[in-house]
Amino acid sequence: MLKHSPPARTRLASLVLASFLLALTACPGDEGPDDDGGTPVTDGGSTDGGNTDGGDMLPDGGSYDPGPQVCGDGKQQRGEACDDGNNASGDGCRANCMEVESGYVCPYPGEACVKAAACGNGLLEQNEVCDDRNTESNDGCSADCKVVESGWTCPLQGQRCKAAACGDKVIAGEEECEDGNAAKGDGCSDTCRLEQGYKCDVVGQPCTKTTCGDGKKEGTEQCDDGNHDMGDGCSPLCVLEPKCVNGTCEARCGDGVILPGDTTEECDDGNVRSNDGCSSTCKLEAGFACVRVTESPPASVEIPVVYRDFCGVNSGCKTPVATHPDFNDANGPEQGIVGPKYGPLGADGKPIYAKGAGSAVTHGKTAFDQWYRDTPNVNVTEVGTLKLNKQANGSYLFDDQTFFPLDASGWVGLGKENLLKDNNNIDRNFSFTSETRYWFEFKGTEVLTFLGDDDVWVFINRKLALDLGGVHGATTGTVSLADAPTVSALGLVKGKIYEVVVFQAERHTSQSSYKLTLNNFETQRTECKSTCGNGTIDPGEQCDKGNENGPGYGKCSLTCIWNARCGDGIIQEADGEDCDDGNTNARDGCSPVCRTEVG
User: Fold this and answer.
1) Where in 349-455 does DSSP place strands (E)?
2) Which range is least confidently modeled, 63-67, 167-171, 180-184, 470-474?
3) Cα distance between residue 585 and residue 195, in whole Å
4) pLDDT tens sequence across 220-278
5) Looking at the chain, which terminus has fewer C-beta neighbours within 10 angstroms, N or C?
6) pLDDT at position 59
7) What contacts 24+ positions apart, CB below 8 Å, involve 232-236?
8) Is residue 496 very low, low, confident or very high in pLDDT (cuts 50, 70, 90)?
9) What is the spatial distance between Cα 441 and Cα 241, in angstroms, rounded to a whole number?
10) Could you tell me if 167 and 181 are in contact, meaning their C-beta atoms sit under 8 angstroms apart?
């Protein structure tokens, strides 16, 4: 608001712009008030001891003050674009007086700058029905700020517009799909966001399921490399995997992992979909409040698992499926099938066979290499998850003592293999392998325990840490990462990210068990809510000034986090600060406007 001005100075900001143009074209002899309130001068005259340059007129028709240039003294000296009597940015006049900030006009030295009347300035003004701080259409508010577009609502001036309603067959705001209803469970949720495993290509039509592994990235898939391999950057669930080498990981937007100390990602909510608070490039989005949530421990964790089903000896294999000699054949435990201990994984992330032409329970490298690789007419692949539930002691446990995940699928489901009896005389689908992977931040307290049959190999940091090879009954093995020699042999360093891989094989009747226990598991994720701009400081927000949110020094941003300001502990010299002690207290050496106090 202008203070103590002559009647002519109470004009609207739009008229101020007109007066500025008139001042530039004024004829010699036009008069205006001097900038410091002195006697009116003509263009080229002088009344206060200083000469003026006929081309250097102020917007109100007066001359620049001839004194020394002092930003913040309320007098506009030559070289200054404005001077509103202070050294603060964000109020229209930059702290160094060298720039009039976007969306403002500063016609009168010593007085507050005023908002320029214009569509896109974030203010709802005459003849406007919306103003979302831009002059672009198709975002809810038309380019001229005169129309709220169909399917949208713009409840807060200066903030992004939103979808008016889910189910109206118009995709708007944060909506990703519109199938014509507000029901969930059909591929398009009750808030019109895509549901996992679906694509919704046609507005108003039912959604359809996607097929992970077909080489086409669709719907909610983050990636699709056309295979069922793990550890290659794209999981068999079509989710991005972390890419880590010897504990050092590449920051990958959408992998759901916020790396310790990483500053390249502002957020990572485990997807690469925009309009949910965290963009497809892992940047915070306007209108949302986002927080990093560390769950230690969560109630449960799910890790992907790949099963490969084989038709074993005497299993009634039907053409063209080949009988595999390593399954339902010999019995007996045997270490060193993939040795030695602390030996490496192969370049493709699979175990390296170490028994030459064969062993007591295996039949050579060619047959073994098929265990964990897709091989037509030898194995058929299924993808699922293992859910580990939190226990009272803080560990995570998956425990299934009748572990037969493919009884109704695999070769049996395709009619190419017969079911065989287990020790309880129940028909089961034996002869399969499983592979699962997960990542963890090494702290030196982790413990992994496995109980199962038959073969089990655990690799940590791509080195063999546990060998329970061979065909045997339920056998237990433990890897403790609190053990110094083990940690040294595995090459682990605290604070870095490492991969654990568990390979398992079920190779003989008449039982199957799988028990995996993990200790000291921790995850971190980003959670966003569409609350920024409502004028209330909600969880995850540092500030919320409602319609006043926006860019500029000292202001609350459009993501409800403070922009640079006095009191943030950082000296912003470009904004006129010469000190900042982290507060806005007076008489402590640094004033409430971050200028050094004298005396």
Assistant:
1) 379-390, 396-400, 420-421, 427-428, 432-441, 447-453
2) 63-67
3) 51
4) 999 999 999 998 889 999 988 888 888 888 878 887 777 777 778 888 888 888 888 88
5) C
6) 56
7) 232/349, 235/304, 236/212, 236/304, 236/306, 236/381, 236/383
8) confident
9) 15
10) yes
Provide long-range contacts, Cβ within 8 A and 24+ apart, for 548-557: 548/158, 549/158, 549/159, 550/122, 550/133, 550/158, 552/89, 552/90, 552/101, 553/88, 553/89, 553/90, 553/95, 554/88, 554/89, 554/90, 554/91, 555/90
Beta bridge partners of 439: 499
Beta-bridge partner residues of 513: 453
Spatial CB neighbours of 221, under 8 Å, sequence gap ≥ 6: 210, 212, 238
Task: Determine the 3-state secondary structure of 208 from DSSP.
Answer: strand
Other beta carbons within 10 angstroms of residue 189's beta carbon come to: 20
Under a CB-based contact definition with an 8 Å cutoff, are residues 111 and 124 in contact? no
Burial class (CB in 10 A: 0-12, 13-18, 19+), 489: middle
User: Would you state the structure tokens that stand for residue 340, as one six-digit string?
Assistant: 């030695």
Q: Can you give the pTM of this predicted structure?
A: 0.67
Cβ-count burial 438-455 (b if 16+ within 10 Å, e if not):
bbbbbeeebebbbbbbbb
Residue 586 backbone dihedrals phi, psi, to 5 degrees: -95, 160
